[in-house]
Design brief:
Layout: H1 2-32, H2 35-56, H3 59-72, H4 76-100, H5 102-109, H6 114-139, H7 143-164, H8 171-194, H9 204-238, H10 241-254, H11 256-275, H12 281-305, H13 307-315, H14 324-348, H15 353-377, H16 379-404, H17 412-430, H18 437-462, H19 464-477, H20 480-485, H21 491-509
Helix pairs in contact: 1-7, 1-11, 1-19, 2-4, 2-6, 2-8, 2-9, 2-10, 3-4, 3-6, 3-9, 4-6, 6-8, 7-8, 9-10, 9-15, 9-16, 10-14, 11-12, 11-14, 12-14, 12-17, 12-18, 14-16, 15-16, 18-19
């Protein structure tokens, strides 16, 4: 629990700074381009997402799941090198095929400039390798190093886009190029550190199980992409690019729910994957999940209560007529964020074939709902379809997680109560849209106190020892100097320190504790 609190603090501060940079850039872009260009930009990203589905092979998910297994077997480096080399080979082959067939693809997505299309082909490799590197830092609990690299990524993107956006006529090309540079920064950093010890060999005996694991997730990712992409594509076909622009802008704003929850997931996942089999860890798991739920509720409350102010400040007044879209989309991203923790339990049970059932089913439902509702009610139909699909996805993940990994069984009543609270707060905030800012601040402070009080009471009653450990760890979790001085140590030192942490964690988990309620 102490490690979770420390790493969460570092990730949170890093995320706060990076998302501040990201949203400053997003606000700048939203003002610098038209609504139609915003729609065009998101359609290009849609194509990049489709390419990523075929080119990434979902290798990064298998890397995360089997990282500690390979580390215990002493084959971590060979495993890591084999996966990245395989990813590079697959991207070269499939990238050439996509370039040759670009005229056919243009027929689906309308004419895309060759230069922009070439950038989009590079996206899958850059984003996938970047994901693997960041996963490596998280799994090794190198939180401060990850924070520094993430800051460099965002600064590179910010400087590039602001320097060239106003000077270039093809503004969408500049924005996409900036995103590619952002992923390139971390790949360059990784290459400088590890290229001397790199092996260009692909050991299929090491990656076989990981690839089998990822193959199911690759299919399920297709369903997830249907869920996240259909709305924009159908809006462009059935409505206008302007509708895509409105939807994309509010979707980006609502996605801060998912982005702000990412630091806590980054601290949560490595600890669960490493220690889920240990005696007494179930108590720690529930304690962390309660804190994550409280933070998620406070984040959604903030976005929905201050909808008017955030829309005007970040997107500008030209988006304010469609303010109601944000209330609904925030719910969708809250459901999506909750699903990550439930999907983790399915992965622990190695039942990733059921990810296919969940993602493909919810993706197909989303397609059908979009076709039906966009024709009937336009833009708001796409929004409603997306949120319903995310809710169905969450429900299915909860069912399969409880069925296949009963060690971390989650009560349907408690999850339902949390969702009911989420809906109630959102509706209440919708009625307060025209209220003055001081009144909203006062209301949010009351909600903050109420949520923290209720959740801390739950933690205090069931997990008192863990709560005290967390509170004691907060002052030291903000000390970055000690973390940074350890980054220059060699690989053997890192492995030894990780082993020491595991031994200490084992001792804590074996301490006699009370009955889990």
């Amino acid at each position: 629990m102490k490690d979770f609190a420390r790493n969460s603090s570092i990730y949170f501060i890093s995320n706060l700074i990076n998302k501040g940079i990201s949203f400053f850039l997003f606000a700048y872009i939203a003002r610098a381009i038209t609504v139609e260009q915003m729609g065009q930009y998101n359609l290009y990203l849609l194509l990049a997402t489709i390419f990523t589905l075929f080119l990434s092979l979902e290798i990064q998910s298998g890397y995360t799941r089997f990282y500690f297994d390979m580390k215990r077997a002493g084959k971590r480096d060979a495993f890591e090198h084999s996966l990245i080399n395989l990813l590079l080979l697959a991207n070269i082959i499939l990238g050439i095929l996509f370039w040759i067939s670009r005229d056919t693809i243009f027929g689906i997505f309308y004419n895309i400039p060759d230069a922009t299309y070439l950038l989009i082909i590079f996206f899958p490799f850059f984003t996938s390798v970047s994901s693997i590197i960041l996963a490596k830092f998280r799994l090794e609990e190198r939180a401060f190093e990850l924070a520094v690299v993430s800051l460099l990524q965002n600064l590179a993107n910010l400087v590039f886009v602001i320097s060239l956006l106003s000077a270039m006529s093809d503004k969408v090309f500049i924005i996409i190029c900036g995103m590619l540079i952002m992923h390139g920064v971390i790949i360059f950093y990784y290459a400088v550190r590890y290229i001397r010890s790199w092996s260009f060999r692909i050991d299929f005996s090491l990656v076989k199980e990981s690839l089998r694991f990822s193959s199911f997730l690759c299919v399920s990712t297709m369903g997830a992409y249907f869920l996240s992409m259909t709305d924009r594509y159908m809006l462009e076909k059935l409505e206008t690019e302007k509708s895509v622009g409105y939807y994309s802008a509010f979707s980006r704003l609502a996605s801060t729910v998912e982005l702000c929850m990412l630091p806590f997931y980054n601290a949560f996942a490595p600890k669960v994957y490493r220690e889920y089999q240990r005696e007494g860890f179930r108590k720690v798991y529930y304690s962390m999940l309660i804190m994550v739920s409280a933070i998620l509720l406070l984040q959604t409350n903030f976005l929905t209560l201050f909808n008017k102010e955030l829309t005007t400040l970040i997107l500008s007044s030209k988006y304010i007529d469609y303010y109601y879209v944000l209330y609904i989309l925030v719910l969708g991203y809250a459901f999506k964020s909750m699903s990550y923790y439930l999907a983790m339990n399915i992965h622990l049970s190695k039942k990733t074939q059921y990810d296919i059932v969940v993602e493909v089913s919810s993706g197909i439902i989303n397609i059908l709902l979009n076709i039906l509702l966009i024709i009937q009610i336009g833009l708001i139909g796409a929004v409603i379809a997306t949120v319903i699909s995310y809710f169905i996805r969450l429900t299915m993940y909860l069912f399969y997680a409880n069925r296949f990994f009963k060690r971390f069984y989650l009560s349907y009543v408690k999850i339902g109560s949390f969702i009911a609270a989420l809906l109630s707060f959102t509706w209440f905030h919708y009625t307060l849209f025209e209220q003055d800012l001081p009144i909203k601040i006062g209301i949010y402070l009351l909600e903050l106190f109420a949520v923290v009080f209720i959740f801390l009471r739950v933690v205090d009653n069931r997990y008192r020892e863990i709560l005290l450990t967390k509170l004691k760890s907060i002052p030291t979790s903000l000390s970055f100097h000690g973390r940074w001085t350890n980054l220059s140590s060699n690989k053997e030192t890192d492995d030894d320190s990780s082993s020491d942490k595991e031994r200490q964690s084992t001792k804590r988990d074996r301490t006699p504790t009370g009955r889990i309620g």
